[in-house]
Amino acid sequence: MQCQIWRAELYEAGMEMSRRELCFGGCFRTVCLPRVKCAGSRAQTLPTPRGQDRPQCRQTGRSTSRRVQVAGLSPGHEGDSFFAMTIVNPFPGMNPFFEQQWRDAHTMLISYLRDHLQERLPTDLVARAEEAAVTLGHDPKTRAYRPDVQIREPGALKETASATAAPPLSETAADPIRVFVDEEIERWIEILDTMGRLVTVLELLSPSNKLESTERDRYLRKRQTFIHGGANLVEIDLVRQGASLAPAAVRTVLRQAGAAYGVCVVRAAQPSEQEVYPIGFRDRLPAIRIPLRPTDADVVVDLQALINQCHERGRYHLLNYRIELEPPLPLEEAEWVDGVLRAHVLR
């Protein structure tokens, strides 16, 4: 079925929220909010069948999906009906399925966080997104966790148009396997003053930081460099994969709190006294304090708002919500996740 795009105006409680581009594919995975007023009258809302639960908006208590009948999608599909999925983050806190697309999510979150800070910093401070290329797996003993290494048979490869044909070999040689290794781009945020002095560093941990032994050691060395250099450090850990990088005392606090995620803040003035934000698997992400210079007030960042923004703009309602999470969840949490996804028509 050929994909068709149309624009719809979305409303909640009679108030226009936004214009979004909706895509109807062969699996009919699409989205809408309570009231759909489609350009060209190409869709109409239908009553939900009796006994069928609909996902509820956490703010208004109203349904966030409707059964929609779409006409004229393609020959043979006229009059088909289906339940539209919600585009909002179905979880009250962190969406654990983000790790499917962590590189994309990480890039967006860094950008949103930088923009959020920029609007709230004193006028003589500036937030910069920094990055460094890190090649994973160069050590034979190191296992690359990302599926960014592509192994193809030689016959499937395409040479560049500018390449000059090599003369035929006089001797027969074995066909090699060509391996394309994609570099990991590590990103973080630095807050600097007008003289270029580093004030605060914000790190959003990735699975590679927590899974790769080489990467763990390199990151821990970088952390110590920031702390010993007199900068504030904010470490945000929103991934479940890998072992915690926090100091032993912080790990104890997180474990006792039953936290699945956590934020650790190290203030340059008191590096031995670290501020910890334990975050439960079902908890709303907290608003955290970002330290600046001793004479500046802290900047508050609402992590939940950034995650929700990332979910909607990244169209993460299209992630594969049928797969099992890694590492596996305890039975009680797995049943809760299944219930949340079914209530939002994502599973």
Keywords, separated by commas or semicolons:
6-stranded mixed sheet; 347 residues; 16 strands; 3-stranded antiparallel sheet; 2 domains; 20% helix; alpha+beta
- Fraction in beta strands: 25-35%
Q: Can you write the helix and strand succession as a string?
A: EEEEEEHEEEEEHHEHEEEEHH
| Strand numbers in spatial order across the main sheet | 7-10-11-12-13-14
Radius of gyration: 24 Å
Question: Strand tally, please?
Answer: 16
Low-confidence parts: 1-55, 62-83, 135-163
Distance between the termini: 22 Å
How would you classify the helix and strand content by structural class?
Answer: alpha+beta
Q: What's the structural domain tally?
A: 2
| Mean pLDDT value | 73
Q: Share of helix among residues?
A: 10-25%
Main sheet properties: 6 strands, mixed
Contiguous helical run count: 6
Shape: globular
